[in-house]
Fold:
Amino acid sequence: MMDNSTVINIGLMGLGTVGGGVAAALSGNADAIKRKTGRTVRLRKALVRDAGKVRNPAPPAGALTTNPEDILADPDIHIVVEMMGGDSPAGEYLERALAAGKHVVTANKEVMSRRGPSLLALAQSQRVNLLFEASAGGGIPIVGCLMSQLLANDIRSIRSIINGTTNYILTRMARHQTPFADALAEAQAQGYAEADPTNDIEGIDAAYKLSVLGSLAFHRPIPHHAIYTEGISRLGPEDFRYAAELGYAIKSLAIAVAEANGSVQARVHPALVPEDHLLAKVDGVYNAVEVTGDLCGQIILHGQGAGRDATTSAVMGDILNILRSMGNADGPPPLPLPDGGGGNSEARIWPIDELASAYYMRLTCADQAGVLAQIARILGDGNISIATVIQKDTDPGSGTAQLVITTYPAREADVQTALAAVAELGVVASVNNLIRIEG
Ligand code: NAP
Ligand code: HSE
Structure:
């Protein structure tokens, strides 16, 4: 058994935005770590792609490597901290680390979404920890909450803003009329965006995170590929203006709801959120996760969802928890995933067609008599009841205007069918956007 005088060696895979923050915290906070855990930690190796890059802070002498074997095959490395991102090779490295009996900490939502159940089963059989707090919500401690403090609850729903890059872009567009491309470049410069920012903008990153959180909340795998995912790239500046006039903010929401029949709604898409709702007030890189459980009622956790320091907080929390549990002869406690009573078969995810929601639609139409009547007839025939109509931005040059329609709750399939018919009308130049209204 390991005694307290043993130095705990860390193998860090990735030394970018988050890995760099973790390396700095391991050296800068060494005394506090010793005080809080009784353990001395050392960064023994740091894996990168390019050994020639200038690093700030510079890793300890001799620590930098481009060879993963220097970490995976080193029996003296006790904890592997994976901060590389992407499914492969990170996923294979994590499997090997666990199989070799090393504890693992990861911030990788893609790996945890795709391979979480098998990696957790491997960790359990090897009696080592696999912790992943930073994989969803950045600095917000939502993963730990779902795995321990909220475990007694029957979780009914999660409604969240869980992509910092997207929320940063939407806030800049709404508040400062910043063009989309400029707002994205700012988020990248701050270190918020994924290596491929398409994952942020198209909702893929949020779907991975929702898969992780939903699986923990509902105790059965929520496969990311079954989650309905829609990005933010169709939103135009006029959508923010019109939404504000109607009393709404536009946010990209990640929603998972446990339905009474055992199926699960799981979807990521832009939504109009009433201005007085807490989620409408979550701005910039901040994220928020609203959890509703049978015992706790509604809880909202709010904090920075991306960025070096906030994410380092979550990763270091996992490392300190492992340090505190090391030497415990019983090994880590059983994990509540994938089978905490719900069975380990994948949840049935609702097709989006079955959703009932209110909608905002924006059309470019001919500015002439009878247009609204034609559109209203199609919507009415499709069982879609109109709540408000406003005509905006008349353009005498082209003879067109923007028509903004909101509806009462209707079936998504009916709305899609009706809009396809509306788009065919000769008086409709384009259907520009369809956005669900939440809350
Ligand atoms: P990043 O800045 O791009 O850093 C990635 C690091 O991994 C770099 O040091 C890179 O080496 C190294 N790397 C990548 N692929 C490698 C490979 N095949 N072999 C060896 N080294 C490799 O990424 P990040 O923003 O820190 O994100 C890291 C992880 O944290 C991702 O899973 C991400 O989703 C997650 N995360 C990020 C944030 C955030 O705010 N950035 C927040 C929460 C979670 P080089 O330096 O040589 O290129
Ligand atoms: N790219 C992610 C985001 C990083 O913007 O939220 C945090 O997971």
User: Anything to note?
Assistant: Residues 143-304 form a domain with the Dihydrodipicolinate Reductase; domain 2 fold (CATH 3.30.360.10). The longest strand covers residues 248-258. Residues 138, 163-165, 192-194, 200, 205, 305-306 surround L-homoserine (ligand 2) (CB under 6 Å). Residues 157 and 257 are 4 Å apart (CA to CA).
